[in-house]
Amino acid sequence: MTRYQEDCFYCTRNAKLAANYILVAPLHVATVYLSRDQTHRGRVAVVLNWHVDEPYQLTETERHEFYDDVAHAAHAVAQAFHPAKINYATYGDTVSHLHVHVVPKQTTDADWDDAFVNNPANPVLLSDTSYREIIDALRANL
Ligand SMILES: [Zn+2]
């Protein structure tokens, strides 16, 4: 099993990653990235630091460490933005690298009654200053 995949933007950390995410902070076995789409303010992705397709491919210890990092990141999101609920989405079909989207939701959100839209047609993109403010708020709680 390979732990690095040439065509994976989480492994290569290439321009496609930068087009979609901004580095927030490394954690224990994962890295937190801010989603450039801020439809849900504070939305991040927690990305395992090596390539596996599925959580069951991790050892028990690695799996615990990864989900501890997910919980730690979600706690920081909660402390910074006080969402009514956080949804967690683990996908692996378009990018087969274990990562969890941590999506805070407010009861005033238009999609409150649904889970959330992963790639909205009209993403909420912010200024660099606004991204920096969100990242600073997250880092203060990590
Ligand atoms: Zn990868």
UniProtKB/TrEMBL annotation:
Organism domain of life: Bacteria
Motif (Histidine triad motif) on chain: 97-101
Domain HIT residues, every copy: 9-112
Pfam families for the chain: HIT (PF01230)
Name the UniProt record assigns to this protein: HIT domain-containing protein
UniProt source species: Levilactobacillus zymae
The organism's taxonomic lineage, starting at the top: Bacteria, Bacillati, Bacillota, Bacilli, Lactobacillales
